[in-house]
Amino acid sequence: MGEIHDALRRANRTPGRSGPPAPDPLREREPDPEILEAFRALAPPPAAESPPAQRGHVSHDKSGRWQSREIVVDAQGPASESLRHLALRLRRELEARHSRSVAVLSAIREEGKTTLACNLALALASVSAERGVALVDLDLRKPRIAKSFEIRAKTGLEDVLAGRAELRAACVSLDLPPLDVYPVFRAQAGAYRTLSRPSLMAVIRELEREYEIVVVDTPPMLLVPDAVLILDPVKAAIAVGRAGKSTRSTLEAMCKMIPKERLIGAVLNEGSLPVRASHYGYYGDPSEEP
């Protein structure tokens, strides 16, 4: 090929002729601008970079206690240890069921559902080696997780469900313990319609791929139909009651609405600890004498 190319170049030169040489028939031609523009139109657009997660923190006072009333105030007390025991039992149960998501349910308002969801997610994060726990607010009518953690951000999960934002944009990452929170900032009047969209299933499935455990806060089950829709993509549930507030009839009515294969167990808020617990104290307290 090199010899033929040189021969053609010599043949195009005329002895004694001045001026530029004749065009080389084998030289690569400049591309036509119109053709280039057509190929650019056919090419797929470059992939957009995922927005970074928003940063957040849980407010503490000088002694290291949680400031928000939704969070356990003593991170080293019996209540926190009980929550860690619950977290470990829940994790084992979810592993046995091959499920990564769990909904926290209550029959009516003010039974401690959001408080348990927040503290359970914190407890799970504290016993997890990596950032493998997510807390998701799906109480679109009266969201409280953002207020509980004193989170302020521009993008919430309501924007994701409505198709206005990517899921990553609604993530607020806490550092201590390492927990990712997906809050809702603006109450949704059409919550039932929003939760009826296929986007809910897509969000839960994406979270299950990303995290080891996904804790979902829900609206009261007997007051609105939203929780029934949430139980479709979320495969496990915990029922919450409150001592002195919940009644047997409301708890029974709620449990009848939860599919039997979803219900893991029940938690009673504000119940009294056994009398013997106060005599043992906190095991490993550095203030105790050896």
Explain what you see.
This protein is an alpha/beta fold and 290 residues long. It has a domain at 97-273: Rossmann fold (3-Layer(aba) Sandwich), CATH 3.40.50.300. Helix content is 34%, strand content 13%. The protein contains eleven helices and eight strands. The protein has helices at residues 2-11, 33-42, 78-97, 113-126, 145-148, 157-161, 191-195, 198-210, 226-230, 248-257, 277-280, and strands spanning 54-55, 101-106, 133-137, 172-174, 179-182, 213-217, 237-242, 263-269. It has an eight-stranded mixed sheet, with helices on both faces. Strand 7 (237-242), helix 10 and strand 8 form a beta-alpha-beta unit.
Concise synopsis of the structure shown:
The chain is α/β, with parallel strands linked by helices and 290 residues long. It is 34% helix and 13% strand.
CATH topology of one domain: Rossmann fold
- Distance between the terminal alpha carbons, to the nearest Å? 91 Å
Biggest sheet strand order reads 1-4-5-3-6-2-7-8
As a percent range, the share of helical residues equals 25-40%
CATH architecture of one domain: 3-Layer(aba) Sandwich
* Number of H- or I-type helical stretches: 11
Silhouette: globular
Major beta sheet, specifics?
Answer: 8 strands, mixed
How many strand elements? 8
The CATH superfamily title of one domain? P-loop containing nucleotide triphosphate hydrolases
Uncertain runs with pLDDT below 50, 5 residues or more? 42-52, 61-69, 276-290
Estimated radius of gyration? 30 Å
- The assigned structural class equals alpha/beta
Order of helices and strands: HHEHEHEHHEEHHEHEHEH
Q: Mean of the pLDDT scores?
A: 78
